[in-house]
Write a structure and sequence with these properties.
Strand content: 15-25%
Strand order of the largest sheet: 7-6-8-9-10-11-13-12
CATH class of the largest domain: Alpha Beta
Number of domains: 3
CATH topology of the largest domain: Rossmann fold
Oligomer: single chain
Number of strands: 13
Helix content: 40-55%
Distance between the termini: 37 Å
Number of helices: 16
Order of helices and strands: EHEHHEHEHEHHHHHHEHEHHEEEHEEEH
Length: 392
């Protein structure tokens, strides 16, 4: 098992663990509980799902019986969104037994829970997220070209490209198109399928809802709803434009990044990429990789950072803006090892408006250097807090 860096404090409190399918939620929980006394309720099994959907109060009776004999019990409920009704019983049991009964609840979507206004336990269970493997977790097994091509879902890490794409194609067809359709109760299957193809092709680009609506054959409102489905099911992350006015931000167009480069390639039918850093496809995937890594590692570190993209009215762009309580980082992402000052016009435009921002360009170079006054660093150093403290 590849060690995960998520700190899941399940011994101190009940937890929700959300994440897309196949990121390793069940494997992680079973590993953490290996030395503990626990009960597993797998709602992916039809007979188990039917049991608790028909009689959710059975959970209360079962746990009350066990609690008479055990000082502490861990209850692992997998894919809890399949049976939202059970959460009322979970809530009651947490209230009744406090830390004697600890729940670990996993799910690939909170959409159904939110849509049906079910009991989300009002903070009695802490929420965490698990993502595909990061370069930190992969360690010496990490290979940038492989991750850009195949992504980093655990089932494909050790597969050859051909087998990996069989898995990824199956994932895209069965999970993304069938289960999300089922989860979201989307009636126009053809339109959603077309939308998903477009969303993969447009991943990382500023969204024009009207254009996608025209290509998909549905309204702009429906396209916005489809993107919300991808967010709620953790298949995409949204980057809002960096604008100080939150009101203006609401009417500006965001970017969406699908959660894994391998899935993006599979949906697009792309089974190879150019190995030349600086090519358009390579550059797009490299940008995705960096932004997804930043997003994942911020979550794992539980940092109160916010991330955005920036585009001026004249078309100047900065790939990633990271805002903390103390600092504002402007980060440009270049797959080429050689970045010249003329390649950073968007950054310079941003700095004219935000002189307090800390500029940084990450690339595939092997050693840091400067392009004018802007540091160019190897991409791994972006995640080295000690190095960044020395730099600035």
């Amino acid at each position: 098992m590849i060690p995960r860096i998520l700190n899941l404090p399940f011994k101190r409190n009940s937890v929700f663990l959300f994440g897309p399918r196949q990121v390793g939620k069940s494997t992680l929980i079973k590993h953490l509980l290996a030395q503990e006394n626990y009960i597993e309720i797998d709602l992916l099994k039809n007979e188990v799902l039917l049991k608790y959907k028909t009689n959710p109060e059975l959970l209360r009776s079962e746990i009350e019986f066990l609690a008479r004999k055990k000082d502490r019990i861990y209850i692992f409920i997998d894919e809890v969104q399949k049976c939202p009704e059970i959460l009322d019983e979970v809530h009651w049991l947490i209230e009744r037994f406090d830390k004697q009964v600890i729940f670990i609840l996993t799910g690939s979507s909170a959409r159904k829970l939110k849509k049906t206004s079910v009991n989300m336990l009002a903070g009695r269970a802490w929420q965490f997220f698990l993502f595909p493997l990061t370069h930190v977790e992969l360690g010496s097994r990490f290979n940038l070209k492989n991750v850009l091509l195949k992504g980093s879902l655990p089932p494909v890490i050790d597969d050859q490209a051909e087998d990996a794409f069989r898995t990824l194609n199956s994932y895209a067809q069965v999970y993304l198109k069938e289960e999300i359709l089922n989860e979201a109760i989307v009636r126009n299957i053809g339109a959603f399928s077309r939308f998903l193809d477009i969303a993969a092709d447009q991943s990382g680009k500023i969204v024009n809802y009207s254009t996608i609506a025209r290509d998909t054959g549905v309204s702009s409102k429906t396209v916005k709803g489809y993107y919300q489905i991808l967010e709620d099911t953790l298949i995409a992350i949204r980057l809002e434009p960096f604008i100080k006015s939150s009101r203006k931000r609401l009417v500006m167009h965001p970017k969406y990044y699908l959660f894994d480069t391998g899935v993006i390639n599979a949906v697009n039918g792309r089974i190879s990429i150019s190995s030349v850093a600086g090519s358009s496809i390579y550059g797009m995937l490299f940008e995705h990789f960096i932004i997804l890594e930043v997003y994942r590692l911020i979550h794992y570190a539980e940092k109160p950072y916010r991330i955005f993209h920036w585009r001026s009215s004249h078309g100047a762009e900065v790939d990633l803006i990271v805002e903390s309580t103390d600092n504002l980082w402007a980060i440009e992402i270049k797959s080429s090892p050689l970045v010249k000052s003329g390649n950073l016009k968007g950054m310079k435009s941003f700095l004219k408006q935000h002189s307090n921002a800390i500029p940084l360009c990450v690339s595939s170079c092997d050693r840091p250097y400067s392009a004018g006054e802007i540091p160019i660093i190897p991409w791994k150093l972006l995640f080295d807090e000690e190095y960044l403290n020395l730099l600035f």
